[in-house]
């Protein structure tokens, strides 16, 4: 999920660089959807569970093993196949004979695989028999992951390895149909449902391995360690490997922050990131709902300037300089995309605009005139609710200006219309109502309209929220 990062520290001017615990009480999906022919088809396959065992080579550049994905059919119609997304192939596609795709799957069990599609990022597996409504099924496969030789969310940084978007994940089918969108090379194209992960990583003991979830470690073969990470209610799983230095602190609100940094990362930057992380994770917990995962890993490097920073559930990858990083923006993503999910290809504003809005709230920035200060729209067709397909179609230059800048300013403007306390209450309710689910623009508009007797129609029109 390549990200654009803003506001690394409160004193910095706005500079966009577009670059490559127990479960909460609110369920991910209703156990029994209402019987109504008017109801939208449920997102399926839902309640995914991933069990993964991987073994690393000597420096963490290659990981091989077996993965099982189990799931439930939430649709009223039988499920005849599932689609597995290999997002790690998004940059390299199908590769070449001399350089194959970084993520490869073989030895499929539980179904019959079709040829790879969508630039080798999509694998359809036909199930042996149609899976009826409410039933569970599973598929298993061997997986081979070779970390690309580039500084990237899925790449190498000297002796350090980052494995973001490396694990194959189940795609989503819903009222809009199959979600087999391409990786457009910037922003995010991803859409997944919250699920459970158990990932066992066998690696050299010299490698420190931060990962999504809660991790336990035990001795493996001589010179090796077995790290097992368990995460509930998350949409993805990421990890890193290398000779990281580390430190753990616990916030006043009880969240465990595990900081990891490379040998060349500024100590001042590490301290700043930790300070802002402690403050923001607790503040966002009070504002939007308590952070549910117990712990959060901060993985910091000063070599990510050509990439930026990136959010994953329970782990954020941070380009850290002496003045800090975009840690607050990335932590805000734990709520907007993580806890409250969205189709990031179709509605990028629902996570990026909201994360930037939260970032600006945390730093107490003066946004009184930010909507007017942004000037004119970059084009007649620009709108906050455009998809990544729109920006990829020759309009990449609009992405930063619209999704981050105008998007966050629109939310500040909405706060001025509704009132501060009313907006805070509305957002808490919005997060609560879509906790570990998937929200849409229509859902947010309904929540905002319910918070005021004013007709928000003119507001949506002015701010191009369709």
Automatic annotation (TrEMBL):
What PANTHER family does its record include? LEUKOTRIENE A-4 HYDROLASE
**Keyword terms:** Aminopeptidase, Hydrolase, Protease, Signal
The protein's name is M1 family metallopeptidase
Instruction: Cite the Gene3D superfamilies for this sequence.
Output: Neutral Protease Domain 2
Superkingdom is Bacteria
Q: What is its EC number?
A: 3.4.11.-
Task: Tell me the Pfam families matching this sequence.
Answer: Peptidase_M1
Q: Which residues form the signal peptide?
A: 1-27
Q: Where is this region: Disordered?
A: 27-66
Query: Where does this protein come from, organism-wise?
Result: Streptomyces flavochromogenes
* Ranges for domain Peptidase M1 membrane alanine aminopeptidase: 291-461
User: Which intervals carry biased composition (Low complexity)?
Assistant: 34-47
Top-level enzyme category:
hydrolase
* Listed GO MF terms: aminopeptidase activity
């Amino acid at each position: 999920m390549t990200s654009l990062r803003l506001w690394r520290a409160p004193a910095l001017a706005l500079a966009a660089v577009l670059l490559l615990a127990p479960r909460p009480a609110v369920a991910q999906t209703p156990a029994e959807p209402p019987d109504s022919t008017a109801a939208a088809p449920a997102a399926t396959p839902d309640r995914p569970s991933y069990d993964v065992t991987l073994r690393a080579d000597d420096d963490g550049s290659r990981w091989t093993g077996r993965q099982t994905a189990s799931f439930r059919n939430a649709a009223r119609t039988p499920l005849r196949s599932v689609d597995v997304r290999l997002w790690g192939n998004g940059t390299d596609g199908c590769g070449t004979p001399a350089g194959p795709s970084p993520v490869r799957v073989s030895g499929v069990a539980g179904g019959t695989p079709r040829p790879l599609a969508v630039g080798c990022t999509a694998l359809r597996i036909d199930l042996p028999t149609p899976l009826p409504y409410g039933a569970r099924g599973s598929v298993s496969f061997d997986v081979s992951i070779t970390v690309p030789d580039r500084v990237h969310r899925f790449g190498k940084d000297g002796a350090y390895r980052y494995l973001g978007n490396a694990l194959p994940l189940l795609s989503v089918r819903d009222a809009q149909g199959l979600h087999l969108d391409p990786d457009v090379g910037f922003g995010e194209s991803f859409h997944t449902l919250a699920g459970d992960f158990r990932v066992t990583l066998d690696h050299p003991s010299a490698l420190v391995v931060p990962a999504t979830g809660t991790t336990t470690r035990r001795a493996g073969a001589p010179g090796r360690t077995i790290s097992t990470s368990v995460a509930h209610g998350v949409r993805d799983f990421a990890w890193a490997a290398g000779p990281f230095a580390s430190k753990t602190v616990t916030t006043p609100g009880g969240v465990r922050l595990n900081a990891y940094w490379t040998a060349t990362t500024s100590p001042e930057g590490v301290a700043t990131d930790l300070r802002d992380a402690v403050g923001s994770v607790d503040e966002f917990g009070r504002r939007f709902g308590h952070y549910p995962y117990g712990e959060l890993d901060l993985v910091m490097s000063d070599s990510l300037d050509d990439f930026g920073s990136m959010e994953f559930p329970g782990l954020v990858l941070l380009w850290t300089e002496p003045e800090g990083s975009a840690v607050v923006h990335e932590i805000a993503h734990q709520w907007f995309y993580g806890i409250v999910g969205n189709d990031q290809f179709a509605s990028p504003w629902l996570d990026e605009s909201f994360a930037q809005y939260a970032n600006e709230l945390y730093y107490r920035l003066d946004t009184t005139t930010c909507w007017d200060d942004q000037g004119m729209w970059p084009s007649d067709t620009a709108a906050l609710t455009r998809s990544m397909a729109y920006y990829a179609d020759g309009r990449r230059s609009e992405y930063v200006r619209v999704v981050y800048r105008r998007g966050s300013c629109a939310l500040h403007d909405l706060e001025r219309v509704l009132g501060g306390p009313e907006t805070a209450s509305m957002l808490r309710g919005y997060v609560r109502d879509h906790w570990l689910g998937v929200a849409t623009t229509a859902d947010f508009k309904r929540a905002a309209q319910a918070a005021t007797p004013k007709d928000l129609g003119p507001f949506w029109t002015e701010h191009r929220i369709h």
